[in-house]
Design brief:
The complex is a heterodimer of chains A (645) and B (88). Chain A is mainly α and 645 residues long. Chain A has 37 helices and four strands. In chain A, the strands form two sheets. Chain A has a two-stranded antiparallel sheet. In chain A, strands 2-3 form a two-stranded antiparallel ribbon. In chain A, helix 23 crosses helix 24. Chain B has one domain. Chain B has five helices and two strands, in the order E-H-H-E-H-H-H. The chains are: A mainly alpha (645), B mainly alpha (88).
Amino acid sequence: MASDSIEIVADAILQGISPKELREKGWTYSDEGVGGEIEVIANSADRAAEVLRTFFPSGVPVNSDFYDKLSRFSRYFGFGEHSEKLVGVIWAAAFDHMTDANRTEMLRVLKESENLDFWTMIRAFPHFLPKLKLPLSSFADYLFEFADKIGPDLAGGPFFEAIELFAYRRPNEALEVLKYHLDKEMGSTRAHLCSLILGGIRSASRDGRIDSGIVNRLDDELLRSPITQKRLCYHGSWVSAFRMDKVSVEELDQRLQQMLGGDEKEISEAFRSAYGCLLGKLGDQAFVNFYIRWIGAHADPSIPSTAKYWVVHSILSLCSPNPGKTEILDFKAGANLLIRVQPIPYDHAGIWRDMEYFLVDALKEGNETFEIVLNGMYLADEVNLSRLITEGKLQYLESEMSQHGMTQYVFKLIVSDNPTLRKLGFELLRSHQVHADVKDVMEVVKPVPGVLKIILLESIRRPMLGEDTSQFFLALLPIYEQCESEVKEEFKREMVVQGINYPGACLSKWKELENPSNFLREVIERVEKYFTNLKAVANSPVNSLTFPGFEQAVERGAREQSHAVSNSVKQRSILRQFATTIQVIYGDTWTTYVDGHLGKPSGFQSISHSIEYPRIERIDPEGMAIRRLNAAIELEKLVKKDASH
Amino acid sequence: MNHGYDQSLSIILGLRQDVESEGEIEKLKKILHLDFQAKISKISLEEFVDAVQGYVPPNDIEWIESFQRRYLDMSKGRELEEAMKRIG
């Protein structure tokens, strides 16, 4: 058996010995030892040739077996720096001994074969690509084809890093590759590729590895180009050079300023570039401070949506780092920066997803932080945020909120002086994120007639479904009972209305309560009197009173409502979106017919969910609309009255 | 006959200003048998509300008053319409 770790593992791979079996035979390795062995292979062609001979005794195969064997190293040495470097170094050494035709064929195999561990090889690219030799056009075309295959997949990072390294180490060849691509049609992939190459060449010129005059002439040509993608290629190259520590923060600031003076895509590129630079500098407080100042100075509602995405995404990274790491930016400060870029269009799901994550992280930080953040965001973009909450689009946030005590927060919103925040309070209450607990409510809501009047009017203006309504009134009941004023009677009348409106969720629930107060008892009596009177007139001839078209209108209304409910259920049900709907005309069983065989019949299974419909909305929709409008008018008058005092 | 009554009358309720319906009812009467001509008539909503208000006991008057406010008090309707435009 060979003496060093790499040869032992190469031998084990050849003989089909698994990592576990090898360990059982007493094999161990140290990171330091393996690191040293890799360095020797990387710096000695003879040693590299020896390893290749051990690994491929019959010669290096020009097919997928090569990659298959090579990628197995990570199973023995783990997925990390050592395996990546080892694979890259052996890969480069093997290519050194091949003809151009074989190298080209091997790259084709890697790109096209679907049975390879493609991403292991991609991770090894930084140790392979800077040493790769191919004729210009093949080399340039393969770079583009790999970039195109990787696309926006974040796992492709090492490949793009490899391009920068190649351009830095071999700037003159990189210049030829760059010119080759600049003469081709410039799409976003090619522009990205060119920006990385130019970034590497720029870095090399800063170290005197290539004439800086060449880079200046290229810069001038690209910056003056009427083709946006070429200008983006120039702008993006500064990120690469900055990442390679060849550009100062001051110079970066000037370049970002230059981008901000361009068109919409260039402005977005400025924000993307700033974020790209931040990624490698999260541990550098001075740069983080620069970034935050820069965002604070340039992020505003008028920037393009893509730029908003980078702002939101970067704030999320700064405020919500990976588990175990401390936040770099305080949530409240982060929220202030997010608020600067609002409003965010409703249909920009990617930005809203990050906003939702930010809100969830703020919630985990503490209720006080969450309240400040959500209030600020809602005040800044009421229209879109309100729509997302009421349409149930923030389900992750909803689920997290339901696990935190939100009653006090929601009732603080409901009694707020600000009508927009009151609206948010009712929306949160309606979206089932809050369980109205009496004790918590009493901490927040004081029996002040003016405040109670506002709550009552808001509840009329923004009605809730049955169970929420019942819970809402029961939570507030002890507070209204303490208040000796007209509003107490109004609250009682409203409870009666809701008892009639929801005889199941309200009346029945209230009747089940032990030791109801006199106030509640009176409410129940009044509601029951209504239903008793209703029964008495059920067969009265007055029920024949109608108007032309009424029956048809009722029938049509019911049909339209049924369609609306059905569509709404379909939109919200993942299952319904996957499955096909089949209308069953008769029968109560189903079966399948596959490959000429009829299966056994099975009975239908039914799943249902019922919700109580508000009676009065059905009986007198116009009257309920007028009630809501009257409540809004009264609220408006109250606000004006308060403002004049 | 429904509800166990021997006789019935058809009453058309309409706004006082709705003169068109009066003309239609007169045309209908002309084609009805003589015995049925007196069984259909129009009463204006305004008269109806006034009459009911005169007979309903004070404890039960709220419904007819709210009917009057909602359907016959045009100033209230205009006020609501303006508020709707303002508040949205």
